[in-house]
Amino acid sequence: MQGEADRQRDLLDVESLAGHLLPAGSVFAFLAEHRDVLFPPELFGDLFPSGRGRPSIPPEVIASVLVLQSLCGYSDREAVDALTFDLRWKAACGYAVDACGFHPSTLTYWRKRLAASERPQRIFEVVREVITATGVLAGKTRRALDSTVLDDAVARQDTVTQLIASIRRVAREVPGAAELVTTHCTRLAEVAGGDYTATGKPRIAWDDQGAREGLVTALVGDALALLTWLDEADHDAEGVPHGLALIQAGGGRAAEAVALLALVAGQDVEPAQGSDGTDGRWRIARKTAPDRVISTVDPDARHAHKTRERRQDGFKAHVTVEPDTGLMTKVALTKTNGSSNSDATVGADLVTTDPTLTEGTHVQVLGDSAYASGPMLAILAGRNWEPVLKPLPLRPTVEGGFILDDFTHDPAAATLTCPAGTTRAVSSKGTVTFGVACRGCPLRQRCTTSAQGRSIKIGEHHQLQREHRQRAEHPDFQAVYRQHRSMVERSIAWLTRGNRRVPYRGVDKNNAWLHHRAAALNLRRLLTLGLTRQDGAWALA
Could you tell me how far CA 273 lies from the centroid of its own chain? Predict the structure, then answer.
């Protein structure tokens, strides 16, 4: 059942004894005075539908601890230690000087309940409601988009480690698989003299390429044998499904283990000889899979390339910021790869679902070139919103030669005219082929090096992007971009300061953490802007 705070203060209540020592305008002082208003018990009533059982910690205390924890970047144990020994935390949460904090697992328990509820991000939403109530965003219709890569909480694993860990996981999670691994997955023992219960790397001559390929062959062979057995024996003698049948039936952790083994067994290896691998030998592939799992400990973590020089492993945090105040109105955490997780796709979803924007108002959306995709411009055009997005750069096929905008596009006639004056129709698939018209053309050396002549592929939203590039050359566009886009960089800096590494595993848990941290930063920013409560309403002094 839900806990309830004692409204009668303890004799040694820290706020009563030393509340005057709390820094004015700090999050500690604010929570000490307004935590029960910001996080009332009814806000969390759905988490405890039953009135039976032992009372939990009062919800305003847990919510306050979650806010302070994400603000300070503490682990669960560090947060509870701060609640026990730090007078500022005690004052913020209404604890007495001699009160002991709760067990750290209580925070895990509450986060699980929040994640399973219909409003998993309610703490962030409550702070956003405070933002709206103050009127600080009234009339502010600019939103800036940006993203940053956050490091994962696990170490990257090589192919050998992933294969061994995946087989071990199947042995643990799938009924009957442990015995098969022990009795039938013997290839590893043949090449390294060990089995899947041994810790550390297999003992082979790592300087010998043949020994390395032999180890990879053994591990892939064991993995495929295990998957084959699971495929051929979807049910045990009692009819209980396991293996691949569990995947089809949504078999939880066992299904996840089998799916991960199948993925790892194929993502990094290729036949060592021949195109079909009939000789049974395998080697590490000389390529990187597009959606490569980098660790079996956290299968959601991915390689990230924010720039060519900067490479990280982890997740991507996306934010929507009101540029004049630096307040984050929407945030999301995703994997770093995949078209559905691109900056433009996620950014479009964030800004179009931002509840702080009033329907029908003129909105300026600011962002770097990662957001200036055709679909993003089409979405904004459909809402009559103004894109202040840095255009994607155009690169000529010949150094110093013509770019795409040097060709004249007629969307009504569906034609494209080259700088030499030759006009060709745009095909239904968006292809324009000049072909023989390039023979003898005096401008050919500035246009193409292809013997077949110039060929151009036009996207679905080509005209929108062309018009956007023209608008971006106007001084007013550039002035707005320079003045208002930079604030989102400051918000990103606040977000990542001391918290570049996520604390949990998986997208869902870290997405919840990102929302809690954004809520804490928004609250701190509001206090800097003068947040106060007057006559029962939130306002800015």
Answer: 39
- The model's pLDDT over 357-401, given as tens digits with 9 standing for 90+, comes to 988 789 999 999 999 999 999 999 999 999 999 998 899 989 989
Write the pLDDT tens digit of every residue in 221-255.
Answer: 888 888 887 776 555 545 444 545 544 444 678 88
> Can you tell me the distance from the alpha carbon of 104 to that of 96, in angstroms, rounded to the nearest whole number?
19
Nearest-5° Cα angle at 492, 489 to 495: 155
Among 291, 265, 263, 294, which residue's Cα sits nearest to residue 155? 294
Q: What are phi and psi of 217, to 5 degrees?
A: -60, -45
CA dist., res. 52 & res. 49, Å (int): 9
Distance between CA atoms of residues 290 and 162, nearest Å:
17
Per-residue pLDDT of 490-529, as tens digits, reads 999 999 999 999 999 999 999 999 999 999 999 999 999 9
Confirm if 217 and 209 have CB atoms less than 8 A apart. no
Distance CA 68, CA 523 (A): 11
CA 279/CA 226 separation, integer angstroms: 19
Q: What is the pTM of this model?
A: 0.90
The token pair at 316 is 């991507």
DSSP 8-state assignment for residue 42: G
Residue 417, Cβ neighbours under 10 Å: how many? 15
Kindly state the tokens that stand for 202: 């297999």
